[in-house]
């Protein structure tokens, strides 16, 4: 069975480890590369900061190299260029569950340790000895099914448990956003008064998500709510509602916490957002790679948490610290 450790347990284990292995690390300076889903996304910018903090603490070199958009065809050549630099480990957010398996296998075959952060390849169950995609050492991420369930419960509450809703999503075959949609729909089965309409896929483009909202609203004037399954989907849906006859009528629940979404929460346009902890994902990704490279076993799955941000708690510094860096 796959071991799932909480970030706190992992922190305690690795804090001890950092001291125990510093002598080994001094022999050779390790290089760890982080390949994000895309470079221009506050989520990955924040993840990079967390990775940098761990790299500094452990005395390793960190490379950050990615594509400017969420696109497999752009990510694969970036990955190939990173493999050519031969770092000791690659942390990567694969932009597709299947299409990144073969390119990542090349990294493993070249002796580079692979850890996936945020998204997974295959079914996300690593080090099982089964299937063609279990070779990464670990998967460090939020629990995305749970995230979708939290979103659904919040939206159900906002719309008084009845009416039509839909999921604004990026592209199919992305582990995170697929699972959020899955969790959302699972939870909505417990709310018989709510009808979930067809998911709208926006290619991670907020402008497309905004115009999709407008056509959905034109076709369903009784639309009650939207769940934006990631930053650009949520931002686009909120922008679509803004200034349209839907404003004040259609409720929006968001995923991710850039300043732009937080502003919409303050203005009342978005009811709440589910902030991930991307800095923790980056931090524990580097720590897990370091542990593996210095001869320690690493859990095959490391889970990080969420902070739900609403108008009522956004002023609390313990909540506001989870707003993403830009
Ligand atoms: O929601 C995050 C990330 O978890 C997902 O895999 C892709 O979209 C984001 O980067 C936000 O834009």
Could you walk me through the main structural features you see in this protein, from its secondary elements to its overall organization?
- It is a single chain.
- This protein is α/β, with parallel strands linked by helices and 326 residues long.
- The protein has 2 domains: 4-142 and 276-305, Rossmann fold (3-Layer(aba) Sandwich); 144-275 and 313-317, Response regulator (Rossmann fold), CATH 3.40.50.
- 44% of the residues lie in helices and 19% in strands.
- It contains 12 helices and 14 strands.
- A 7-stranded parallel sheet has the order 1-13-6-5-4-2-3, sandwiched between helices. Strands 7, 8, 9, 10, 11, 12 and 14 form a 7-stranded mixed sheet that branches.
- α3 packs parallel to α11, α6 packs across α7 (175-188) and α8 (206-219) packs across α9.
- The longest helix is centred in the N-terminal third of the chain and has 17 residues, at 42-58.
- The chain is elongated and about 65 Å long.
- The two termini are 38 Å apart.
- Residues 1-12 and 18-25 have low confidence and may be disordered.
- The site of alpha-D-tagatopyranose has 13 residues, from α7 and α9.
């Amino acid at each position: 069975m796959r071991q799932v450790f909480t970030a706190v347990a992992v922190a305690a284990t690795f804090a001890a480890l950092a001291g125990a292995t510093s002598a080994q690390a001094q022999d050779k300076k390790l290089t760890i590369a982080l390949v994000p889903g895309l470079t221009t996304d506050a989520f990955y910018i924040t993840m990079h900061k967390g990775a940098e903090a761990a790299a500094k603490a452990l005395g390793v070199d960190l490379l950050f190299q990615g594509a400017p958009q969420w696109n497999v065809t752009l990510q694969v050549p970036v990955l190939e260029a990173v493999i050519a630099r031969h770092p000791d480990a690659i942390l990567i957010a694969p932009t597709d569950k299947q299409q990144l398996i073969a390119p990542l296998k090349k990294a493993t075959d070249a002796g580079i340790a692979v850890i996936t952060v945020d998204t997974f390849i295959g079914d996300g169950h690593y080090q099982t000895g089964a299937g063609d995609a279990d070779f990464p050492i670990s998967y460090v991420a939020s629990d995305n099914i749970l995230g979708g369930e939290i979103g659904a419960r919040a939206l159900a509450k906002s719309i008084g448990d009845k009416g039509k809703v839909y999921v604004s999503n990026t592209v199919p075959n992305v582990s995170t956003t697929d699972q959020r949609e899955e969790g959302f729909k699972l939870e909505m089965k417990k709310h018989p008064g709510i009808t979930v309409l067809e998911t709208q896929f926006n290619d991670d483009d907020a402008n497309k998500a905004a115009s999709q909202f407008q056509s959905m609203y034109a076709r369903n004037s009784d639309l009650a709510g939207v769940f934006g399954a990631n930053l650009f989907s949520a931002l686009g849906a909120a922008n679509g509602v803004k200034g349209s006859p839907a404003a004040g009528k259609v409720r929006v629940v968001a995923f991710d916490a850039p300043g732009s979404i937080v502003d919409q929460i303050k203005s009342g346009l978005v009811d709440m957002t589910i902030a991930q902890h991307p800095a923790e994902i980056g931090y524990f990704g580097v720590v897990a790679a370091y542990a593996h490279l210095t001869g320690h076993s690493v859990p095959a799955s490391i889970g990080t948490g969420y902070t739900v941000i609403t108008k009522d708690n956004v002023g609390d510094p313990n909540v506001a610290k989870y707003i993403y860096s830009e």
